[in-house]
Write a structure and sequence with these properties.
Length: about 625
């Protein structure tokens, strides 16, 4: 590339000297001297096309010429200067996009921050031949058309596809490799819960931690609590109420919450299946989520301002209770953001009125498949029209109040209907002019409307409470009757069981008594036998004792006789000993000794028999 002297100062001068300029680009020419790029025109698909490509820089036409200073939507990186604050606010280039598309996306993000882009024709860059060579017209005959401007030689006409090729397949390959995502967004009370339930029933994971059913949504909100909590934190960080019902302004996501947001997206992608989320607060952060999840497609749902306002009043929303007009102003602000985003990203967005979805959900799902490339199954048959219905006469009065008081809300509603191609029937009311004398009463009418809706909600709640009380009373009576019958049955059962127990106990007592009496009789008989046997034994013992006593007396007599005999022997022995001393003689002495020994042995035998006889008697006793 050949750079003209002073090109850098020219570009930097724009972004430093002008606060509103976020980026500046130069004039890029080829080796043949013709324009390669003089800024980019961003088409309906979000793709950039070089302006004035293929003509000399000095040529002029219906749109001016390349040497004009002009605003531009985007630029390629041949010659580009960015304001430092703008670069920091957009957090750099999206790595998932190819290089030319990434710079288109970068410039778009800078413009969404409130900056402008400008072409500086005196910052010229000359490049050699390459892939950016001019493209011939899509129709060769246009080259000879005197009304054909060569600046549009590379512009391909918009062709509406008949399938996913019209949107998702045209995205960069890095995005096509990610699982498809479908985000359901819309103002509070616009039917997004119903639409999200249909999408979830058709195969899109809308999250695992969902807001439970409550007042105003009896069948559940289908709101992903992870995204809801992040939005509420971001709103509070911007000094706003967490419900996101605001009449103006576009809050930003604080840098401290961005890692959490990317973590949520990464977790949903990791499943590898179609995914999405729904939270009405998403409308306030559309550009942020578009950058964080560039693969996401958007189903943007709206509903008439009078229906949304009436639903908010009936829900007893605290932010609209004190200021009824806030509901309509918040509706206008939210749907302006919706419409602006849809027009900036037509290839990624599908706008539908709630009545279109409820009347023909199959047609809406076919459009999602064809236009957005999100694979959806058949919508489930779970729609209850009574949840959205209302009195037609009351709706017409409400619509007339809104059209009278805030005609710009009605104009925005019709603009949304044109964007969605909606043919949902409208309430018939007469148009009021700005000078209508009854216009001043419209504010009071809205206040009365809000009060009546709240009163009706309270009355309905009271009626429901009364019905529930009657049902509870009937249930209590039925429960008491059932309890009484159960008590009677239990009493009768207890009586039967008690009688059976008593009979069994009586039989058992009789059996035990008979057995005890038999045992007592046997014991008495045994006692009598033992007593008789004991008496016989006693007599025998007494007889044996008497015999032993007599035997002992006899033996005592024998012992005394033996002792007397022994005494006599001793006397004779003494006499014999004395005689022997006088007249010695050995034979006489020996004789005496033998007689003494015999008597001693006899005495010992008698004593032994007496002792043995006594022990035997003791054993017998």
């Amino acid at each position: 590339a050949v750079l003209r002297e002073g090109w850098l100062a020219a570009l930097v001068g724009w972004v430093t000297a002008h606060p509103e300029i976020g980026f500046a680009t130069g004039l890029v020419v080829g080796a043949d001297g013709n324009v390669v790029e003089c800024g980019l025109v961003v088409d309906a698909k979000g793709e950039g096309t070089p302006l004035f490509r293929g003509i000399p820089p000095t040529q002029w036409g219906s749109f001016g010429g390349p040497m004009w200073y002009r605003n531009t939507s985007a630029a390629n990186p041949w010659a580009l200067a960015l304001k430092a604050e703008a670069w920091q606010s957009v957090r750099g280039i999206n790595p998932l996009l190819c290089l030319p598309q990434a710079f288109v996306d970068l410039c778009g993000n800078v413009r969404r921050r409130g900056y402008r882009g400008v072409v500086e024709p005196h910052a010229r860059v000359t490049i050699g031949p390459g892939p950016l060579a001019p493209v011939p017209p899509f129709d060769p005959s246009l080259g000879d058309d005197p009304y054909f401007h060569p600046a549009y030689a590379s512009v391909v006409p918009l062709r509406l596809g008949s399938g996913p090729e019209s949107s998702r397949a045209r995205r960069p390959r890095a995005l096509q490799s990610l699982p498809p995502a479908l985000v359901v967004a819309g103002m509070h009370r616009s039917g997004t819960s119903l639409v999200a339930s249909l999408v979830a029933g058709a195969g899109v994971s809308m999250g695992t931690r969902l807001l439970a059913a409550g007042r105003g949504n009896a069948r559940g909100h289908f709101e992903d609590l992870d995204f809801q909590e992040l939005h509420q934190k971001a709103l509070r960080a911007n000094g706003l109420h967490g419900d996101g019902i605001v009449p103006a302004g576009q809050p930003h996501v604080p840098e401290g919450l961005e890692p959490r947001a990317r973590e949520l997206i990464a977790a949903r992608r990791a499943n590898g299946k179609p995914w999405g989320w729904k939270d009405p607060r998403t409308l306030l952060f559309l550009d942020f989520w578009s950058e964080v999840a560039p693969e996401a497609s958007w189903l943007l749902v709206f509903r008439s301002p009078w229906e949304v306002a009436d639903s908010l009043y009936r829900r007893l929303d605290e932010t609209t209770t004190s200021d009824p007009l806030l509901a309509i102003h918040a509706w206008m602000h939210a749907n302006r953001l919706l419409l602006d985003f849809a027009r900036r990203h037509p290839g990624r967005c599908l706008v539908r009125e709630l009545g279109q979805v409820t009347a023909a959900p199959e047609r809406t799902f076919a459009a999602i498949r064809d236009h957005l490339g999100v694979p959806l199954g058949k919508p489930p048959a779970c729609f209850d029209p009574t949840l959205l219905g209302g009195d037609q006469g009351v709706i017409e009065e409400q619509a007339e109040l809104v059209r009278t008081l805030l005609p710009e809300a009605d104009s925005l509603y019709h603009e949304l209907r044109r964007e969605a191609g909606s043919a949902v029937p409208l309430p018939t009311t007469r148009r009021r002019s700005e000078a209508d004398p009854r216009r001043a009463a419209a504010v009071a009418g809205v206040t009365a409307w809000a009060r009546a809706s709240r009163t009706q909600t309270h009355a309905h709640a009271a009626h429901v409470s009364a019905v529930e009380a009657v049902a509870a009373r009937d249930a209590a009576i039925a429960t008491a009757a059932a309890a009484s019958a159960a008590a009677i049955e239990a009493r009768e059962t207890l009586a039967r069981e008690t009688a059976a127990i008593r009979a069994a106990a009586a039989r058992e007592v009789a059996t035990v008594r008979a057995a005890a009496e038999a045992e007592i009789a046997a014991a008495r008989a045994e006692l009598s036998r033992v007593r008789a046997s004991s008496a016989d034994t006693t007599r025998q013992v007494l007889d044996q004792e008497a015999s032993r006593t007599a035997e002992i007396a006899r033996q005592r007599d024998e012992i005394e006789a033996l002792l007397g005999e022994l005494h006599r022997v001793h006397v004779r022995l003494d006499e014999a000993t004395g005689v022997a001393a006088l007249k010695p003689g050995k034979r006489t002495i020996d004789k005496v000794r033998r007689e003494a020994s015999r008597l001693a042995r006899q005495a010992r035998r008698i004593v032994r028999e007496q002792v043995l006889g006594g022990k035997q008697g003791d054993r017998q006793r």
